[in-house]
């Protein structure tokens, strides 16, 4: 239980680190874009090679497909709602002429972080191998997310203490979510855990496709496609070590 909470918090700790970097360091936008592209590739790879591949032959294919598409649909619906409130700017480093919607950005980030943390917690149940590649992928992808949006929030007049408090609370909630995922699903069958993993994979792939990749391309140009591919093959290599 505590190991699940520890690693769930660790994966999200990069949100806090990225926020500090965004507030106090001047990092070129292209560098941020390349980190985001690498994180995108890692997430795509880990969602495919870890979450989906692990379920192969251990759960019904129709159920896996349904849960994957349901995860993508749920994220998309929430993304539409959050975007209408201003949360679509949560990964942006530029100044928003209408002002960032602080709470929408915050809840949008939670929408990304909590499902990721629950999946981390599930990975510690029973005899399943710990999803080290997935944890590493989330850690890397979180860095540019908080770095970019913290720069934007700073430009819109948010104080450093308030920004750090918001990101710090996400880390705490992520740790708690990972622990709860472990506790509530500890007694469930192995197939249920894999189905939840498929649900998370669908949500994650929808998230990186609609938020991270567009932002990375906008800031980094066509080269981000190659960087994302590097992330995918790196995920594949780490999964097969």
From TrEMBL:
The keyword DNA damage does not apply. Keywords: Membrane, Transmembrane, Transmembrane helix. The chain crosses the membrane at residues 6-24, 31-49, 61-82, 103-126, 163-185, 191-208, 220-238. This is ZIP family metal transporter.
């Amino acid at each position: 239980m505590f190991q699940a909470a520890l690693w769930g918090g660790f994966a999200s700790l990069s949100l806090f680190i990225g926020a500090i970097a965004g507030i106090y360091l001047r990092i070129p936008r292209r560098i941020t874009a390349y980190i985001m592209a690498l994180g995108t590739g890692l997430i795509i790879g880990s969602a495919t090679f870890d979450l989906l591949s692990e379920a192969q032959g251990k759960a019904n294919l129709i159920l896996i497909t349904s849960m994957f598409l349901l995860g993508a649909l749920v994220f998309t619906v929430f993304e539409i709602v959050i975007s209408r409130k201003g949360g679509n700017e949560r990964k942006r480093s530029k100044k928003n002429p209408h002002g960032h919607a602080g709470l929408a950005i915050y809840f949008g980030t939670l929408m990304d972080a909590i499902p990721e943390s629950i999946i981390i917690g599930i990975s510690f149940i029973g005899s399943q191998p710990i999803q080290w590649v997935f944890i590493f992928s989330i850690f890397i992808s979180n860095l540019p997310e908080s770095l970019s949006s913290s720069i934007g929030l700073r430009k819109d007049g948010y104080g450093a203490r308030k920004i750090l408090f918001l990101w710090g609370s996400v880390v705490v909630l992520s740790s708690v979510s990972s622990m709860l995922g472990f506790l509530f699903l500890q007694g469930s069958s192995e197939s249920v855990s894999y189905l939840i993993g498929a649900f998370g994979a669908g949500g994650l792939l929808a998230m990186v496709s609609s938020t991270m990749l567009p932002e990375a391309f906008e800031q980094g140009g066509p080269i981000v496609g190659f960087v994302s591919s590097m992330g995918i093959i790196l995920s594949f290599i780490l999964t097969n070590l």
